[in-house]
Amino acid sequence: MGLSDTLAARFDVESHGSDVRTELVAGLTTFLAMSYIIVVNPFILADAIQIPGYEFFEVVQMIAIATVLSAAVATGVMALYANRPFGLAPGLGLNAFFAYTVVIGLEIPWETALAAVFVEGVLFMLLTAVGAREYVIRLFPEPVKRSVGAGIGLFLLFIGLQELQIVVPDDATLVTLGGVFANPWAILGILGLVLTFVLWARNITGAIVIGVATTAIAGWALTLGGVFDRGTVTPETLPAAQYDITPLAGAFVEGLADIDPLTFVLVVFTFFFVDFFDTAGTLIGVSQFGDFLNEDGDLPDMDKPLMADAVGTTFGAMVGTSTVTTFIESSAGVEEGGRTGLTALVVAALFLASLVLIPVVAAIPSYASFIALVVVGVMMLQGLVEVDWQDPAWAVSAGLTVTVMPFAYSIADGLAAGIIAYPLIKVAVGEADEVALGQYVIAALLAGYYVLQTRGVIL
Questions:
Q1: 3 in any annotated domain
Q2: For the chain, how many structural domains are there in total?
Q3: Would residue 9 count as lying in a domain?
Q4: I need a labelling partner for 99 at 20 to 30 A (CA). Which of 17, 108, 235, 269 fits?
């Protein structure tokens, strides 16, 4: 039996209506679609993770390695255990929550934040093992399931526009359009966006990677050609290749060693809350694009991909990165015909192979990397077509899910808004009997949480 036959048998490819060649192409497609995270995740987390004795771009390279390793491990588990064609890596939105809300906003040490991610990853493994996590996710109202992908997309779109300096703070209106064409940073970002959207519209595989790389090359060409000084549209200095991640890997242990118990419990709970609903939403969103959901909007055998997610989160915290989750870009591989874990195995192998490119990450200007957030955000808005906007409960629940995420700068807050609104509107229109008891319970618990959280009783 040849390698191809062995792989086909191991992943039961034929019974899933696929073949080995299709799975390999799908794996390459998914990797190209999501590999931007190798660049984007480090730039987001490096705003919060500061290691004495190391420059910003040295830390960026460390986090890039942690990103690659956690993605490879989590996707490998997805392949070999869950046999699903989903790629995993540190999630966009969750890394922003880690950096900007927990570490910078709440002034929690980044080591403690990593420790909290580790603990909630272990808790997720335990809950997944007993089926509790899948049970709660199945209680999500269907309009929330159908709209969460678009909500995450709008949130990422908002972050990306800010990082590109297209949208800037304003005292009167909170945000406004920036002085785009007086800003080389924003000009190059917009040109990169135009290129990437054109490539995506033409169905070019790896459109985001090509767009990011081309924009970065353009910035360096203008700098080396004397149009701009170093530090304007390119990093002012570049560090040597940094493959030693020991200052980062294992730092969660230090976060566990010196903590205030009450504060730590609250941080773990906050991560747990955000990660639980964000991961569920992203996994459902990916499955929605891949047509893996059943007629009730649920993913069959959800416990296995959830376990891959939990293992990835735990391992990611150990090596020094934020929560790992399933990527919506996995739908690109599914569209190419990927149906089994062989697709995911290819993705995991390609992530490991990308370790040789780590030194290049530091040379990529951050405006080039944040192009990915805008493009992915727009792509994810496609999920809105599955919302029944004529049904009041659907319209209110889905509408709040989508809009509260960017306005509150929180994926979890958007999900909570949709979950709380659904039973309220169902009762108002006389359809209380269509709401499960568990949905009432979750809505009540979330409402109680926000009463305490907004009064400052808990984080």
A1: no
A2: 1
A3: no
A4: 235
